[in-house]
Specification:
With 295 residues, the chain is mainly alpha-helical. Helix content is 78%, strand content 1%. The protein folds into two domains: 156 residues, no CATH class; 63 residues, no CATH class.
Length: 295
């Protein structure tokens, strides 16, 4: 039995190392190894590693969500004690500091960034990330719909309307804000994992904590759709992506200027976003119909 055939048997017998055996086998210049043997190893490799890759990705996303939830509780308990421009400056500084800190960690690639593991044969990464992302959005939407109807949701609405009055009524505003911050951090971790897997590369300062791009885009999406609503961020994300593709396709070189003008227009003329505009139109129509019935 040749060494190549021994490696082929090893690939069939030892599941943890099919990819290594495949690569070693491909490098061997042995006439006893036939194309059918190589094809068999490739098929075996895909059958073993594809489920492992998908499971590892899902486990990694869940682990990131749990870790970020815990970190969100710790950081939020301190940062959320501030308000107004102090809170804005604090979160801005936190993002910059996190990027610089991640750039010093060697196990994350340091300043050179991190390359993601390439999917094995038989895994369509784009399709996998699409359905995983769609599932996360659906789960998050259902979860927020349920949460909005609970006592926790009522307290969050009270804080949004007037935090001082909510605190004067004896509501636990600090604990509720911290818990809401941690929930947002958990789902943001899952979104970041999917985003990084799709990019295949993450740089701590230019991608993961890039304030001029991703940092602004995340704020612009709910502003476009309508903050404080369930459907607003979803509609805002769709609208933003359409505008972004249009600007980057037909106004390349001036795309960031056009995006800045869009932000100004939204903030000045549509402060409540698309959902707020639709709500205002609905109220106007209802008032007109009420006047017509009274006449």
């Amino acid at each position: 039995m040749s060494r190549a055939e021994e490696i082929l048997l090893m690939a069939k017998a030892v599941p943890p190392f099919p990819k290594v055996a495949h690569r070693v086998l491909a490098m061997l210049d042995d006439p006893s190894v036939k194309a059918a043997d190589l094809a068999e190893v490739i098929q075996y490799d895909a059958a073993i590693t594809a489920p492992i890759f998908v499971q590892s990705l899902i486990i990694g996303l869940l682990a990131a969500a749990i870790l970020n939830f815990v970190i969100g509780l710790i950081v939020g308990s301190q940062l959320l004690q501030t308000r107004g421009h102090y809170f804005a400056v604090g979160t801005l500084g936190l993002g910059v500091a996190a990027g610089e800190f991640a750039g010093t960690m060697d196990f994350l690639g340091g300043g050179s960034g991190m390359n993601f593991i390439q999917p094995p044969d038989g895994v369509n990464l784009t399709q996998l990330l699409y359905f995983l992302g769609l599932g996360v959005v659906a789960i998050f939407f259902v979860f927020l719909t349920w949460l909005h109807r609970t006592r926790f949701g009522f307290v969050m609405n009270a804080i949004r309307d007037n935090e001082d009055k909510a605190e004067a009524m004896g509501l636990p505003t600090g604990r509720v804000k911290t818990f809401a911050w941690a929930i947002a951090a958990a789902f943001a971790a899952i979104a970041g994992g999917l985003y990084g897997a799709g990019k295949n590369f993450i740089d701590p300062t230019e991608v993961a904590f890039s304030l001029p791009t991703v940092g602004v885009w995340m704020l612009l999406m709910p502003l476009m759709g309508g903050k404080g609503t369930l459907w607003g961020p979803i509609l805002g994300a769709v609208m933003f992506q359409l505008f972004k593709e249009f600007f980057w396709t037909y106004l390349f070189g001036w795309q960031r200027v056009a995006l800045g003008l869009l932000i100004v227009i939204i903030v000045v003329f549509f402060p409540d976003g698309l959902m707020g505009g639709l709500r205002a139109v609905k109220e106007r129509l209802s008032r007109k119909s009420g006047k017509g019935e009274a006449a």
